[in-house]
Amino acid sequence: MACGCNRLGDCVALATSSADYCETGPTMGGLLPTFRVPASVRELKSRLRPSFQTADRAVDACATFPAEERKSWKGFFQSWVEYDTADESWWDAASEYDNGLVLEATLAAWQDKIASRCNLPGPRVKTDADTTAGESLSAVKWASAAVLAVAVVWGVRTIIK
Asked: Are residues 9 and 67 both part of a single domain?
């Protein structure tokens, strides 16, 4: 097992150990919760860091970027720096991870704005539109499973009568 807890016994072992695992992935089609731990936050920071640094360098190098927007970007970038340099703890790993997701979504919008005026090389973060198709498919899958379960129960009930 590479990461986190995939079975209940593993989760108990994770909760009682001092090991630092990353989050468990979605289980049972996303029905069970995903546990976030400090390693989850560090992984998110590591994934976002290159995109933030590239965007900041692009804003610095772009002469056509408006001064008001540059000031707004610098304020946003400073909030990223504070988030990035903050220590991760077990107590608030889930909320810190959520804060990182908000920064990621905001960065995606900034990247679009920066790219429309300047050259923006380097990694781009994914937007919600990139993941919506997979989430819709998952919803259709579970709705189909529910319809099938109701049909089976109805069929078994009819046979038993």
From this structure: no
